[in-house]
Amino acid sequence: MNIILTHTDFDGVISSALLSLATGIDFIKFLSNNQIWYENLTGQEVISDLPCPWKCSLWFDHHESNLKEMKERGVDTALIPGKFEIADSCARIIYEHFRESVPFPHYFEDVIRETDKIDSMKYDSLEEWLRETPVKCLSNTVQLFPDDDYRKFLHYLLDLAKLIKRHEPQKILEMENVKKRCNKFRTYKEESTKLIRDNYYFHTTDSEKKMAVLDLSEFKTPARIDKNFVYIIEPEAECVLFINAIFKNNVKTNDLKFSMGINFTRSRFLPAMNIAKIFEELELGGGHSKTAGGILHAATKLEKLEKKENILKQIVEKWYNQKKAQPVI
Ligand SMILES: [Mn+2]
Q1: Is 156 helix (H, G, I), strand (E, B) or coil?
Q2: Do the beta carbons of residue 39 and residue 53 sit within 8 Å?
């Protein structure tokens, strides 16, 4: 064992901190889900919150899609040391796995409880999601802001993983660079909300006004935005459909990216809705039941606009057809 490979998100940060405490390994590398396939693995790696492409010395994960993918490749996951479990966060699995043998600092109990919520978006209300607890503030700093340099961002994740090993969240928040990113998040949230306010709408066929459409596909540059901010303005919306242009080498194409999610505060009232199915039926993509998406290809601008309008209508129709078949709660 010589290095920890972990995911570039908050769960990945906490997972790597726990694994570092448990194994004594200080080398941590942050990777996206796609990047891990290009790593030269020796089999000595410890992997968390990511798929294990070939072999490794320890693997912890909670993504069902990763497990499925590995099984399809014929990997006998039972032979890989570590633990896979369907859980709200990967950090939870690692914490439970080592807590008897490793004296983790006391504050991890709270950190893990909140990481569960952050990674699974299991919030009961908008207020709970927006509440700035110390752990939530830290997690808010772990995202790539529009003006972030990616290398510096990765360094920040590493710093944070090392800090959380020895200091409680409240203490870490007093540090200048962390404070700066906290404020960056607040600005980002405010600006995003403003931008959403000016650009979201309900489709003309959506008479109940439950599917908020955020269409930023006419923007000249890629818009990086958390579509959940739409609920700050439209808390009653049941889902958000986000449409963005696809850029290749900084050049805008006529292709469109759709991503859609069920309102996380209301999803328990819509238990049988399956958004992945909508995109599968339209042969655009897929995903999970609560969040999914797809890509629409178009050769010309005119074709793009026509196809977009057509797809929008179909998505609204499919959403309400699924809703009609819902059990009433
Ligand atoms: Mn995770």
Answers
A1: helix
A2: yes
Alpha carbon of 179 to ligand 1 centroid (Å): 24
Q: Which own/partner pairs from 133-137 qualify as long-range (CB within 8 Å, at least 24 positions apart)?
A: 134/168, 134/169, 134/170, 134/173, 135/110, 135/111, 135/169, 137/169, 137/173, 137/182, 137/185
Could you tell me the distance, in angstroms and rounded to a whole number, from the CA of residue 122 to the centre of ligand 1?
13
pLDDT in tens, 105-164: 999 999 999 999 999 999 989 999 999 999 999 999 999 998 899 999 999 999 999 999
CA of 114 from ligand 1 middle (Å) equals 12
- Spacing, Cα 78 to ligand 1 middle (Å): 20
Q: How far, in Å, from the CA of 221 to the mean position of ligand 1?
A: 29
Task: Measure 89 CA to ligand 1 centroid, in angstroms.
Answer: 5
Segment 246-285, tens digit of pLDDT:
999 989 999 999 999 999 998 888 888 999 999 999 999 9
Distance 92 CA to ligand 1 centre (A): 9
CA of 32 to the centre of ligand 1 (A): 11
Letter string b/e over residues 114-151, b meaning 16 or more CB atoms within 10 A of that residue's CB: bbbbbbebebeebeebeeeebbbbbbbbbbeeeeeeee
- Please say if the pLDDT value at position 312 is more than 90: yes
* Class of the CATH-defined domain 205-324: alpha beta
Specify the DSSP element, H or E, that contains 29. strand 28-31
Ligand 1 centroid to Cα of residue 90, in Å, is 5
Q: Where in the chain is the domain with CATH 3.10.310?
A: 205-324
Which of 84, 106, 88 has its CA nearest to residue 97?
84
142 Cα–ligand 1 center, Å = 13
pLDDT recorded at residue 288: 84
Alpha-carbon span 18 to 258, nearest angstrom:
36
The reported pLDDT for the residue numbered 247 is 96
303 vs 72, more confident: 303
Residue 328 has what pLDDT?
A: 65
